[in-house]
Recover the amino acids of this structure.
């Protein structure tokens, strides 16, 4: 990506010592911003005892070093169907911010209460890119895609039970969206969606 | 069901001669209305050469004998996401009419063009029961369920391609609907949905 | 729904403090009845130290405030195939009561011991709506649907092992029911079934 | 199996010439009875122009040579849920007869019309073995297994549409049967079920 | 089943107190033998402090009261592919014994070491019924079915990892067995297989 | 989308007469460009007898009216793994052109012959957006995503046999891509990918 | 691969003219042997009117130009479970021969008739590599793998019905093989197995 | 296998006492090398208190007795897509060494950073056999297979989340590899891959 943007550490299969060491080395060699995802509160505590770290517990992600000033074309809207989708949304938000984007959060605007979503038509119509995050039936992506004129990145979540099959139901919904301009990333992959949205929000930005 | 309601013949695995014979016998023994579903145009032609038959080609279903006067509590609304879902909707409509219900059709009101659906809020708010029919991502059931105060019977359809998996994507969506008051029948089962809706529309009707 | 009916709190992804606060606010602003589902015994203890709460441990659900007097058209029958399905049935029962319904429980009447079910033909024939709850092969819904004249809401449960696949086997059985008038909700969704049944039992009730 | 029993030719992947040649050779070398399964009417016509063949068109199977006299312990009951299951049932019947068994057919006794099944309690209680054949929700096996005292061989059929998934729904139902004494064979495998039932019906017969 | 045979308690979803009480009541009312399956060692300890219980820890099953003398026609052979399948095999063995059968165990005779199986051709050729138990590729059922002349009940087990999918691979193998006379029960259902085998072994026994 | 862009007709479930009528009406009411997808050669012949139509047989899609001049920020690269993926790629190409984009085709650059792909590093590094189309193992998306700095829209195709499961294998591969900046659309959905890519290529274009 | 070995044309998605042209060009530029797979009899007729072609109809594959003399270390054994697997086996055989290998065919040696397989222990013990081909339960790979000391390449086939799921059952069996030294290729991929086996049979051959 | 090679103990379902006893007996009766796989650190500690054991904690495997000198034809390359795949790779490495092979490790050379892989073209071009290990999208096997001239054994891993489905996504990718010479073993089966690779590396070695 553009120079200045964050380096990224995927914390999932690393010890807290490994994470701290990798991030310290990156910061030491001149990187201003290091995004660390899938990091436990315990690892975060360890890392912040060694480095300046802005940890977001809901997201299980944090920014080591400086959070860059937003330098994208516009705003990235992050919408969720319910409150249980918020951890994925926050992973997306932290990622987007680490990559230099301004973020608008629209949480709990799922389609069974349509008025809550329609109350935010303004934000939806003026976004550079929208991240639509939902579990269970995943209908949010289609409704948002139908309203918006910008690219929509859909993120199915593993929220739900029974026939939600750990996010498969929402994933299939989103892949079959009858709204144009919707593409999909892996279940619970808030990071990946924000990375795509940031690329879109930085097109033509030098 | 209540006296007077239709007898039903499932035509799928029967020859045209078998269908005609069974329906003739029913009418002959005093039944006023016989609903025949999953019947090919060819079989319908054969049957109507022997019996009074009102055949609906889109539905691949027909009413032999008399269509009963509507005697339900109110109207059954039948909504579809797209135009390709119409055959399933018409199977539901013919069934509902054969069972003594007044039907309102709201076709092609899928969620990627929300205004088309919202233009019919009146019909949705005054229905006795709603049949929500959609393929692909099946989001219609959740949006309708969120708007309506009456029971919603959702019918997934096999419309779509790729990851729609012959209706599985829509089926899972509907089972996971975050709107209360939504229940689901088998893929493409317009008949079953109308049967449920008719039962609901006739509660307390003697 | 009709005025007077319960507000509903889905406890699954909320802390005990959040649940207590939301319910207290609802009761404080005039709501008479608050149904709380998917709430652990531990959360229930916390909530009842702050609010009047009638907690049903098997159901993992409770009613804060007053339980409303039944005002439906008739009774809702809740039937289960086995004893392991009882938690789902109790979730349905608590929900139905919170929404103003009288409930008849027919537990452990699974189809491999048909006489136990047939002994209750009376209750089945006089219900407003029936909730048929079963895991493993889910045959109960078809047998009940064949006997009854009222709508049957089928709830597959995750009870079983091996090829029950966490409720998928029962779910598929129920979707394929050859009895008319059967519709289906998500695996283990006692709440959803009771909500549908209550809507049916309150049709035309002002 | 016991001497005298039929040789078996699985016609599915063989030309009519191959079938005729194999069967002729078997009969020529002293075999009294040759069962041929999965044989088209066209192939049957060809074979019967060369050999004595008793072809059952519904079963798509036939017996070349002599049909043996029944020499089992008792009767094999073959029950189906619907009329569409009859081809599988007839494959089972022809197989059972070719292997020396007396067969009782109970067709269209599915569980959504329980009285039709219960009217045959006598046949069920006196069978040596029962073959329970059903598509869609496959509940027949559990109900029959609950009534009977003898082994029940369940055969799921590919009858149905949508979420019947070509017999998978019925297969899972039957594997999860809560009735004891039920075992299962492959989808549409009438032959295999009859082979098992014949073994059981000939135990201790020399 | 025949008088004298065991009553059965499925312990899986019952407390140790419930199991003890149900079994005590059965024994108290004249039942000689009570088979209890899916019972933890802890529950077994509790039950044996109140009742005579012969508990088999590998099987997680036990016989309360007396073990009946074998009164079947012959022996039931129980074969496993590996040593990890032994718990399922022991559930089958305890069940078979509780139902009055003599049992021969052939453990760890899987098909990748064919000589171990072929060394037991005698036991296989003289069994009344064989229970073939295997996880992973489940090939044992086909090989045994090809050798034996008696009914084979196949039990897939959840032994394995990766693409064994908790027993699904073995289940599908067994359903597709190209050997005649093989039928299948649910994954890990040693009880069900033994029940079927016992029925077969007692045919014609008064 | 931006004014001037194409209207779109999805031909899949429409008769040739319906397609011609809808397109004629759109052109008649001032629309300059109408994109028609999923249209058979036969329907195309009929439509072109009534309207100016530029039909692409591989794509089964065509542009009625004028093809707009490209007015995007840069080029859209369309890459395929094999030659069998070309129909999907051409649907994407026609769509992209109808929406005002310049297209670069890189066909048959699958990862088992990496040099063919690496020979086009220039085109990949300078694209506005890339559409990566592949069946079977779908690895192209990850490799392209690893090389490129722009958003990659991955399209799984139903090309392959056996365990390709009609595109499911490629779909899963692409959803799990370990390269950042990759999002996915439905199997064979060349249209949807091009619509997303066009949105990206027109960001900030008035 | 080694110089001299065949070039390969995958005919599946090519017209007969394309196949002929590609093969002619390869032969024209000095290639001695061209293997063409997945080619219809009709295309083969067209190709042989232009080129020397040795077409194997069962295999739907052929060798254009010269068949090379075998120059491998030893023999490749190709074994099948049934006669319906022969087309896949012949694809493997033609491929192996085109790549310079001597082939031994052991057809219809499936595990339900173990003696037929054991009669060929000699060929199995002296092979360089074995290709084990089977549909339905796929047990052949495990049994062969248990007997042999050389690498076994397993090919599941789509032969079967019902729960064979187009080869999935055999595929899973083979992946779970408890015999060491077994690896697996795609369903019906005779070509791929032979390519692997040829590599093994040519190790150290210059 | 060849004399001198290791005996193998699969520790997964054995107690530490059983493992120690079996290994001791093997060493006692003259076996020089015993490979123990799927053994916990705790069991390893117990075993090494009784036997000379070289335990590899990442691999959860160890060699009791002597590690044999490499006597294969060349080297086995073990490549992984990411660092999370290392446990599976180490199981393969320990196995290969126990069977007398020299091993080259190429870890974290996944296809989204192609240069890291291409930097090792030398090792890839000179290997006897390559083990390609990857989770998530599993593309490594195709890219390596396209580069290499020797057999590639692909091992899908359960690394990943969401739509990686515990290794299924990687497994399908690998089975569909469009590179020739790739075969596949079970998810996470490092042992099985190394066994195959060792067989290949020892061909013609006496
Ligand atoms: N309908 C059927 N389904 C499955 N297997 C069958 C069927 N009919 C016959 N068979 C089996 O096919 C064998 C004969 O196969 P073949 O030697 O190929 O003719 C018989 O011994 C049976 O095991
Ligand atoms: N391991 C088992 N798997 C499946 N069903 C079982 C098992 N053990 C017992 N059963 C069944 O459970 C019934 C008793 O259930 P319950 O009345 O709940 O104790 C028995 O009649 C058996 O049909
Ligand atoms: N190949 C395609 N796949 C999926 N959706 C499509 C395709 N082509 C067109 N569409 C959608 O179909 C809509 C038009 O549908 P209709 O009004 O039925 O003609 C467009 O707005 C697109 O969203
Ligand atoms: N039956 C087959 N299944 C899978 N891949 C094949 C088959 N036959 C040929 N191939 C592959 O197809 C390639 C040639 O493809 P193409 O260049 O499209 O003709 C060969 O190099 C093989 O890798
Ligand atoms: Mg839009
Ligand atoms: Mg509602
Ligand atoms: Mg009914
Ligand atoms: Mg019974
Ligand atoms: Mg046998
Ligand atoms: Mg990139
Ligand atoms: Mg071997
Ligand atoms: Mg290669």
């Amino acid at each position: 990506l553009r120079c200045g943007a964050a380096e990224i550490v995927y914390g999932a299969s690393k010890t807290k010592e490994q994470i701290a060491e990798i991030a310290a080395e990156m910061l030491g060699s001149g990187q201003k911003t290091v995004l660390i995802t899938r990091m436990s509160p315990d690892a975060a505590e360890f890392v912040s005892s060694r480095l300046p770290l802005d940890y977001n517990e809901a997201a299980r992600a944090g920014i080591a070093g400086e959070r860059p000033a937003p330098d994208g074309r516009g705003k990235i809207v992050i919408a969720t169907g319910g409150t249980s989708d918020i951890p994925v949304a926050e992973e997306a938000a932290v990622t987007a911010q680490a990559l230099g984007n301004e973020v608008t959060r629209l949480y709990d605007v799922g389609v069974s209460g349509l008025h809550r979503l329609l109350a935010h038509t303004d934000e939806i119509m003026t976004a550079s890119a929208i991240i639509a995050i939902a579990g269970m039936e995943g209908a949010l992506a289609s409704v948002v895609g139908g309203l918006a004129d910008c690219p929509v990145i859909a993120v199915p979540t593993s929220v739900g039970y029974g026939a939600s099959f750990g996010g498969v139901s929402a994933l299939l919904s989103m892949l079959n969206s009858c709204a144009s301009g919707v593409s999909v990333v892996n279940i619970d992959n808030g990071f990946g969606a924000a990375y795509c949205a940031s690329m879109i929000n930085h097109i033509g930005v030098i």
Summary: The mean pLDDT of chain H is 95. Chain H is about 35% helix and 20% strand. Residues F 83; G 8-10, 37-38, 189, 191-192; H 180 surround adenosine monophosphate (ligand 4) (CB under 6 Å). Helices of chain H lie at 16-28, 41-48, 86-98, 114-118, 121-126, 140-147, 168-175, 190-201.
